[in-house]
């Protein structure tokens, strides 16, 4: 059973999930912690360590650890519990800039990449009658892989098979696409050069927002701080930007 507050009906949360959700909500700056709250609400938290001064989750998919710490003492406690070999860590909130160096050192990860995190709390957008947008099938895998340079073929194949990739078609030709990353954020957005300035990026993300909201979930995404075009797009779509920064600690580049 779904509700429009952002995921599974909250009466179905476990005691640990409900406690972690309440703590995160109490931090304010809702958009900053929406990735963690959606992990809980969508039933994707494999492990939960929640205290008033910090919450740590491990996502069921992708072996991603999510951390929000309010004090250094609590951060050090959670840091010691992150398994060596963890490939990706997300840091949320006011302490994240000081924490990313320590996470990289412990896990021997190369990059700490700052992102703006956005979430959508508006009304469900209506369907776009002017753009042909439909789910991608595996017939489009080669095209997506050849034109999106930030993910492996296996990753993109899994996203298509999961049913979370949408394509925009112009006169029957695939002109752009968008999807949902393994941890639930919107992303994988790409519009072919020949079709830019036709507002397809706007139409694709709006369709992704609609799909997520119709599933009873809150859409969220992360935008690199140097990506001015995407920052402008989020504002146009009515996305709420978190006040604090979210860091991805990873060997990947963006």
Précis, in short:
The chain is of the alpha+beta class and 254 residues long. The protein contains eight helices and 14 strands. Helix 1 (15-26) packs antiparallel against helix 2 (30-41) and helix 5 packs across helix 6.
Describe the structure.
This protein is α+β, with helices and mostly antiparallel strands and 254 residues long. Helix content is 34%, strand content 28%. It is built from 8 helices and 14 strands. Strands 3, 4, 5, 6, 7, 12, 13 and 14 form an 8-stranded mixed β-sheet that branches. Strands 8-9-10-11 form a 4-stranded antiparallel β-sheet, with helices on one face. Helix 5 (141-147) crosses helix 6. The longest helix is centred in the C-terminal third of the chain and has 15 residues, at 200-214. The chain is globular. The chain starts with a strand and ends with a strand.
Structural class by sheet pairing and helices: alpha+beta
N/C terminus separation: 36 Å
- Provide the helix percentage: 25-40%
Low-pLDDT stretches are none
Strand content: 25-35%
The major pleated sheet works out as: 8 strands, mixed
What is the residue-averaged pLDDT? Answer: 94
- Please compute the radius of gyration using only Cα atoms: 18 Å
Number of strands: 14
Element layout with pairings:
Blueprint: E1 2-3, E2 7-8, H1 15-26, H2 30-41, E3 45-51, E4 54-59, E5 64-69, H3 72-79, E6 88-92, H4 96-107, E7 111-119, E8 132-135, H5 141-147, H6 153-162, E9 166-170, E10 173-180, E11 186-191, H7 200-214, E12 220-224, H8 228-237, E13 240-241, E14 246-250
Parallel strand pairs: 5-6
Antiparallel strand pairs: 1-2, 3-4, 4-5, 6-14, 7-12, 7-13, 7-14, 8-9, 9-10, 10-11
Helix pairs in contact: 1-2, 5-6
